[in-house]
Amino acid sequence: MNRVNMASQQTTPLLLGIDLGTSRTMVMSNRGARAEVRSVVGYPKDIIGVKLMNHSYMIGEEALKRHSYLDIQYPLEDGVLKEANDQATDAATLLIKHVIALANPQPNDKIYGVLGVPARASMFNKSQLLRITQQLLDFSMVVSEPFMAAYEVGALNNAIIVDIGGGTTDICAMRGTIPSGEEQVTILKAGNYIDLVLENLIKENYPAVQMTANLARKIKEQHAFVGDAKEPVVVNMRVSGKPAMIDLTKEIKTACETIVAEIVEHLQSLIMVFDPEDQEEALQNIYLTGGGSRIRGLDTVLAARMKEYGTVVVRQVPDPDFCGVSGALKLATELPPQYWEQVGQVINKATK
């Protein structure tokens, strides 16, 4: 009996859901793995860096900690692979290989993966990604990130998904079918854009404050809000090398609200793809996911901006950071691989 069970385990493929993001990449497996890593790869600038690291590259948060002596690469620009850039392709390969290793595959495993990309990623970019995964996975498929989130929460009909990541904000209208291009929008304003605006505002309003992009990101992740502030946001900064408490309430609010207008504009456009009799229901099923959905007050502000359309209900999905990757794994688990090509673009290592 034990031999049968062992044989069964060996023939069951390792299924992975992978959400490739500009800022973070998430992975989950059908064997219980769950991990995230910063989507960065660092290469030593010179021989000193090689000696300090004792390695030819470093991935994730560890690379960011050593940024002073590393050449930091973000292989996923605006949520997709940088085109015509060999170093970015190499970095993306290392990143995806690292993410797969976090799922602890065994030597004889067949590995099948469902990977999320921005809603309107080009066919070229999807093909480029699949060429990388063909080296690393036995069977792989790319699908849109908001669709994965919709699949996870069961919002497959008369619903709208707003997925706010690092590089892109993806909005997808779910109408009971695999969403077409006309039912999905990608906005190139998301978490990284907010970081840049916040960094520039702080530099402009407080010239003596020592400010970096990484510090702006950390401030945003801890304090992001839109609408009315519940209390002042006062942050411990360095002014000419000395510690000082700086009120950044106005700067954080302004930076975070830079993404609101375009989200509202595209929500208003996408509601028109629904039949008139379904629009009321769709407006009451708007879901926020991705790291940017954690911006305090965003659900309230979006609903208020859409109030002329009737009753609007905006809610955050449970576990927004992992919602998309959980949906990818759920899709991989529930849908046999022979049907994957009906959902997304597929490649099989056996065809190599």
Compact summary:
The protein contains 13 helices and 18 strands. The protein has 352 residues and is an alpha+beta fold.
Radius of gyration computed on alpha carbons: 21 Å
Biggest β-sheet, characterized?
6 strands, mixed
CATH architecture of the largest domain: 2-Layer Sandwich
Q: Determine the mean pLDDT.
A: 89
Q: Please work out how many helical segments DSSP would assign.
A: 13
**Helical amount:** 25-40%
Low-confidence stretches: 1-9
Total separate domains: 3
The CATH topology of the largest domain: Nucleotidyltransferase, domain 5
Q: What percent strand?
A: 15-25%
| Corresponding CATH superfamily of the largest domain | ATPase, nucleotide binding domain
Structural class: alpha+beta
Overview of this structure, please?
With 352 residues, this protein is an alpha+beta fold. The protein has 3 domains: 2-148 and 322-351, ATPase, nucleotide binding domain (Nucleotidyltransferase, domain 5); 152-189 and 259-316, ATPase, nucleotide binding domain (Nucleotidyltransferase, domain 5, 2-Layer Sandwich); 191-257, ATPase, nucleotide binding domain (Nucleotidyltransferase, domain 5, 2-Layer Sandwich). The protein is 38% helix and 24% strand. The protein contains 13 helices and 18 strands. The chain has helices spanning 2-11, 47-53, 61-65, 86-102, 123-136, 145-153, 191-205, 213-223, 249-256, 260-270, 276-283, 298-305, 323-334; strands at 14-19, 24-29, 34-38, 41-44, 58-59, 70-73, 76-77, 80-81, 111-117, 139-144, 157-164, 169-175, 184-187, 234-239, 242-247, 286-289, 314-316, 345-348. The strands form 5 sheets. The protein has a 6-stranded mixed sheet with strand order 3-2-1-9-10-18, with helices on both faces. A 5-stranded mixed sheet has the order 13-12-11-16-17, sandwiched between helices. The protein is flat. It starts with a helix and ends with a strand.
